[in-house]
Fold:
Amino acid sequence: MCGIVGRLSDRPVTEAEIGRMCDAIAHRGPDDWGSFVEGDVGLGMRRLSIVDVAGGHQPMSNEDGSVLLVFNGEIYNHEELRAPLVAQGHQFRTRSDTEALIHLYEEHGEGMVAKLRGMFAFAIWDRRRRRLLLARDHFGQKPLFYTEDGSRLTFASEIKALLADDPGLAELSPFALDQYLTLRFVQAPDTFFARIRALPPAHYLVREAGRTRVERYWQLDYRDKWDLTEAALLDRIDGLLDETVAMHLMSDVPVGAFLSGGLDSTLIASYAARRLGRELRTFSMGIPYRDLNELPAAAAVAAKYGTTHFAEEVRPDVVHDLPRLVAALDEPADPLSICLLHLARMTAREVKVVLGGDGGDELFGGYDRYSADRWLDAYRLVPSPVRELVASQVLERLPDQFTFKSITHKLRWVDQMARKTGGERYAQSMQFFWFNEAHRRELYTPGYQARLAGRRPEACVLELFDSAPATEPVDRMMYVDAASRLTGQSLMILDRATMAYSLESRSPFLDPRFAEFMARVPVEFKIRRGRLRYLERRLGERYLPPEVLRRKKQGFASPLMYIMGSEVRRLAPRLLQQSALVRDGYLRDERVGTLVQEHLSGRRDHGNRIWLLLTAELWYRHYISRDSVADLELELAPRAAGAATVGGGV
Structure:
């Protein structure tokens, strides 16, 4: 695991430029660093030593030095790839997976990416052809950002490295702010910075002869379904999952596993524990909110497999957590970020590598909205005048309950989703708890709306839904999630939160071979009679304690907004009503004030929307107004200590 940087320019590149970018991401690789500078080309890396600790120094070259590489990630099938390369005459000097990439490029050029199983972001400089190749893994587990200015292209693992090189890049993308407030993520290639691009997952970039081209090399296909019995499917999934977890345990240093008490991470941990036993260290983080604390279920799994277990309860502190959060992520994010930041800090005290369950929801069918589609179609059969009467006379009069997954939220969700079909419905479902079109019309200034030029923030969802290589609506939904929210939200947060503490996170479900198999599993084996994760639960019956299988899906960060309610009540009025985003013409002061007052008075639950506004505001002050983390903490402290201006609510 590393952080990488580099530049191809029309003028000499200096060691100081490369060093400055490397220093900005030292947290990604505190064990080693290296650089290559030659004329108008520079490459740099920071290394977290995990595989071939002694021999994996980068930049790495082939035998004659004509091909150089910097690489972030892990190639889990590198030993399988090595044998044919040796047979073709390539000489290996190390045991590292990095060297396999170099020789694969010599044989296959950019076609090399089709042979990889792993998570990666890498840059290859071909000195003879004066050709730069950048590539990113299938699901975007590893980040890669770049910016172009004429004949100069600069890239890095994190945006903060690009800003360290050119502070002038700190310019807000109006569209990205709109998309974030709508969906909670920004879809690549867009980022929060107007002139910085993200290389999309499953894409590579070639820069040669002054021209840049970006091409996709892979996507999931849901159309050709397996004709197998349930028992045969379970056996195949069991074998594939055992294989991918074994590959993800590749390491020369100790490996741990996140253990949330939920089905995804618990299943991954159970496979790892059967191979490592007490050598496996497991890590759990609990939330003190009603019955959602998952520590008891996690402890039961740890006891069953005899792992060395570590557990803590999250006690978030908005004043200190939020400024550190936006500085670590380079983007605003949802409450999941704070939970992961705490979990990563605890885990990094014990191990350098940790496995997690990311991707399980998207592959096995774990989200409520997947099973709700047919019920929504049934509700649409109710005559429209009757539905409108229910909405106006009942739903609008129901008081908000200010609790996670309240009945009021659910009923209003059903009413709103039943008004749409297909991709429009799915796009609406992804923005329901955030800022929908009506909210945005009220919130944005006329000037900001004009700058958006009619571009729809949910267009990426509609395009993915309509173009999905799938026929079943549920498959289309899972394709959308895997190609958008998984990468733009979950994996982005996971990478930045863990790497902030020099911790490598790995997601075995996202092995491309395993994901390809799961895409071909018929929907009725994922969702049966409204029951989510049907096959995953059946698989869990082989290995997991009953208390894990009985638990409903929780999401260990989802209720965090309600846990932090008292702090948010104190911060929101002044911070948002003295907003820099209002000052600079993006948001309407009166509408921000109304949202805050409605929430604090208990009239309407805007908790999730206020969270988005708070994190966007702090991001803007840190990156655009250039307030330091220390300055933000000092500013927030007296406000958090003060009293809210209006009573009631949460």
In short: The radius of gyration is 24 Å.
